[in-house]
Amino acid sequence: MKQNYQAESPMLHLVSFNKLLQHYDEQLKSKDKHLAERAKYVLDAQAPYPELREGFSDLELLDKHKDVISIILADTFSTVLTKNEIKTASTPFETIVFNSSERFQNILKNAGEGFELQIRNLPQNVDYIMRCTVVLSFYYGYYMDFRRPLFYDIPDANGVMRHYRILYNADFMEIVPTENAKELSQADVDELLENFDNVDLWKEKIPPNSFISKGFVISNMFDVTAEHSISEIKSTLIGSSKRANENFMDSFQETFRSLFNLRKINVGFAGYDTNTNRFLKIYGKGIESYILKGKEMESCDEMLCSYSHKKLFKENTYFAISNVEKYYKRSNGEQPYKNLHEQGIKSAILAPIASDGNLLGVLELVSTTVNELNSVNANKLEDVMPFIVSAVLRSIEEEENLIDAIIQHECTTVHSSVYWKFQEEAKRFMGDELVGNQPVFKEIVFKDVYPLYGQIDIKESSKQRNLSIQRDLMIQLSEINGVLEVAFKKFKLPIYEELMFRVNTYLEEVKEALYTHTEQAIFDFVKEEIAPVFKHLKSENKVMQGLVENYEAQIDESTESYYDHRKNYDNIV
After folding, report:
1. Structural contact between residues 428 and 416, judged by C-beta atoms closer than 8 angstroms
2. Which of 16, 113, 188, 333 is the most exposed place for a label (fewest CB within 10 A)?
3. Are 51 and 182 members of one domain?
4. Rounded Cα gap, residues 368 and 390, in angstroms
C-alpha cells in the first residue's frame, strides 16, 4: 500500500499506545486479581520499549515491535471474534494497518494479488483542511461537522465488488499543541468557514506541524453491499409524480436534515430555462424557491451576483454563504443576498443540478442560523447530487410528455412556430393541478401580432382530429395483437396471452371514446412493454422477425406510433 505518511500536515503524527497503556496502569491497582495480573503482563512486555508509550514517527518500528504490539492490543482484538469481526488498528488519516482480525486478512486475500486498499470517498485534495477540522474540533472547541460516510470497495473471491462501511474509534488519540500553534478568534473561524478551498488561508491560521497527534485508531467495518445497492435504486424515487404528494417535501427535507445533522434547515428548488436564461418556480405541494422569493420566474442575471453566477453556471459547483447578513451589507443589497436576507435566512448553500455541464436547476439549502450552512458541510452534497440529477432528468422527460398531452387535449393542431407559447400555458395549467387548484387552460393571445396570412378555424376540427387519432390507435393495436397471436400459437407462453388481453382491453376502450390519458397510456404501454417483447421475438425465428419488421415499417419515426389518418388530417389542415 503506497502511503504518504509524512506529507505536509497541521499535525506531526506519532504512533503511540500511551492512552491504551493508561488503562492498564489503572487495572494494575484493581482488586480483581486476574485483571491486575493481566495488566502487569502487558506493562512488563512494554516497559523495555518506552517509545511505544512516548510515540514514534519511524514506521519501521511497527514491524520491529510487532510481537509486543500484539500483546498490547490482545484485549482489543479478541481471538474469539477474530473470524467474525472486520477490524483493524492503524495510523490515523493514512490508515497504515499494523494489526487486524483474521476475517479482514481473508477479505484482502480474496481480493487477489496486487489489490491496493483505498478509502473510496476520502477527499485527498483537501487532506490538509480535513485534518485542520479535527484540530478545530478536538483542541479549539469549534465543532466542525466534516463527517461523511467512508467505505472500502473490495472485490471478493468471485470478482463481485463488496462495499464495507468504516467506523473509526479515536479513543486512543491525543492532540497537543507545539510552539507553532496560534490562538484563534471567532472571526478567524468565521473566515475559515467561508473559505473551505483556500488551503493557504488554513495553513496561515493552523500552520504545518503546529500540533502533535499521538496514538492510533481502531476501525470496525461491516458489509453494506445490500444497502449500497438500495441507495442506488433510491435515485429513481424522486420524480415529478411524487410532487403532488402532501408528504413529499416534508420527507425530503427530513432526509437533508438527517444528512447535515441540522434540525432547522429547509430545502428549496428553482428550475432553469436555457432558452430564456431564467429561474422558474417548480410546482408542487410545499416546494419553495428562496432565491425567487415567491416569484414565478426571474432572469438569472438579476438573481445572481457575478461570483455566484460563475460558481453555478461555469464551474457547476456549490455556492455557500455562511453569513448572509454580512454579504448583504458588503454588497449593498445585491442578489441573491437581498432575497435571502429579507426572508430571515442567515446562511445558505446553492447547489447546481447539472448534467454534462448543462444547468437544469438549483437546489437551495437555507438556515436561520449564521454559519450553520457553510463551505465545509456543503461537501456532504457530493454524495447525494447524482441521485437528484438522475431524478430531475427523468422528471423533465415525464413533464414534457405531460405538457404535450395537455396541449393535445385542450387545443386543436398547433403550429410549431407558436408551440412555445402553448407550452408555457400548459406548465401553468399543470402547476394549478399540482397544488390542488381547479386548472383552466386560458386563451392564448399574441398582443400586437398580425399574421401576413391567416386561416379561419375549421368547423369541428377537434372532433375530426380525435377521430383520426382514434382510428390510428385501433389499427396499431390490431397489428400488435396479430403478432402476439402468432407468437402465442408458436410458443404457448402465458406472457403473450396476458399482453393480448391488455391490448384487447385498450382496443375496447379506444372504440368507445378517446381520452388524452388513454392515448398516453397506450403510448407508454407500447414503448415499455410491447417494444422489448418484439425485440426478443425478432431473434426467435425468421417468421416472427418478418411479422415484427412488417409492423415496425408502419410506425412513424417522429411520432413513434402509427401515423396515417392523423397525417392525412394534418395535411388537409
Report:
1. no
2. 113
3. yes
4. 30
In a domain, 421, yes or no: no
- Using alpha carbons only, how large is the chain's radius of gyration in Å? 33
Q: Which of 307, 330, 332, 331 is nearest to 320 (CA)?
A: 307
The answer to whether the CB of 86 falls within 8 A of the CB of 156 is: no
**Element housing 572 (H / E):** helix 565-572
Closest to 53 (Cα-Cα) out of 18, 19, 98: 18
Instruction: Say yes or no to pLDDT of 480 above 80.
Output: yes
pLDDT digit string, tens, across residues 141-161 = 887 776 677 888 888 887 777
pLDDT band at 2 (very low <50, low <70, confident <90, very high): very low
In the prediction, which pLDDT does 3 show? 43
Q: Contact at 8 Å (CB) between 14 and 61?
A: no
| pLDDT tier for residue 527 given thresholds of 50, 70 and 90 | confident
Query: Given this model, what pLDDT does residue 72 score?
Result: 94
| Residue 36 in domain | yes
d(CA 152, CA 130) in angstroms, rounded, equals: 19
Torsions phi, psi for 155 (to 5 deg): -70, 145
| Residue 512 domain boundaries | 461-572
Cα–Cα distance for residue pair 486/534, rounded to 1 Å: 12
Residue 104, pLDDT above cutoff 80: yes
Domain assignment of residue 435, yes or no:
no
Round to whole Å and give the CA distance between 196 and 194.
6
Q: Identify the burial level of 144 via C-beta atoms within 10 angstroms of its C-beta, where 0-12 means exposed, 13-18 middle and 19 or more buried.
A: buried
Cα separation, 379 vs 317, whole angstroms: 10
- If you search the block for the grid coordinates 450552512, which residue do you land on? 373
4 band by pLDDT with thresholds 50, 70 and 90? very low
Q: Are residues 294 and 192 part of one domain? A: no
Measured distance CA(266)–CA(259) in Å, rounded = 12
First vs last C-alpha separation in the chain: 73
Say how far apart CA 25 and CA 27 lie, in whole Å. 6
- 499 inside domain: yes
**Residues 388-405: tens digit of each pLDDT:** 787 777 666 666 777 777
Which stretches of 456-513 are assigned E, i.e. beta strand? Answer: none
